[in-house]
Amino acid sequence: MKIDGEMNKALLASLGLEAAGLLCSGDVEALANRFGYVFGNGRETTTATSIRDDLRFCLAQLGSTSLTSVSPGTEVVYFNPNATGLLAAVQCVMHTDNGAKVFVDLVVFSNTGANYLFLEEVRVAA
Fold first, then answer.
1. Is the pLDDT of residue 89 over 80?
2. Nearest CA-CA partner of 29 in 4, 5, 9, 49
3. Strand order from edge to edge, sheet including 2-3
4. Domain ranges of the chain
5. Which of 1, 54, 96, 105 is paired with 33 by a 20 to 30 Å CA distance?
6. What are 62-82's pLDDT values in tens digits?
7. Given 3.10.450, 3.40.190, 3.40.50, 3.10.100, which CATH number is that of 2-124?
């Protein structure tokens, strides 16, 4: 998704919580349409299916069956200028039905002066 206007930690944290909330509520289609999915590229499935598959894999690894809530805290990290255009990363924590945690990671890239936020990964919290 393109980020219009000034980009700051509060905005990125809010968008991260929105993405995590969509996943936690099961609205994967809206999540995929709004944020895309970096790790879904190259797969033979739709973006939403790739997200669902990765979430199912995480839940299976944890012995969980569902997400229950989104933690209110988000981590936003900015990067030094680099050749890839990677500007920032956002990490949100979601809780599962057995108390385990799943991370939702988003990344911000700059391309020709515009900033874009994408869902990067759904993964088990270490």
1. yes
2. 49
3. 2-3, 114-124, 101-111, 86-96, 67-78
4. 2-124
5. 96
6. 999 999 999 988 999 999 989
7. 3.10.450
Nearest to 37 by CA among 25, 24, 56, 54: 54
Q: Supply the pLDDT for residue 58.
A: 97
Using the predicted structure, report yes or no on whether residue 41 has a pLDDT greater than 70.
Answer: no
- 38 Cβ contact partners less than 8 Å away, ≥ 6 residues apart: 107, 118, 119, 120, 121
Both tokens of 71, joined, read 């933690």
Distance, CA of 78 to CA of 107 (rounded, Å) = 10
Q: DSSP label at 44?
A: S
pLDDT of residue 43: 72
Give whole-number Cα distances, 26 to 66, 68, 99, in Å.
Answer: 9, 10, 18
* Average pLDDT score, the chain: 93
DSSP structural state of residue 5: S
Q: Which of 47, 52, 45 is nearest to 34 (CA)?
A: 47
Q: How far apart are CA 62 and CA 58, in angstroms?
A: 6
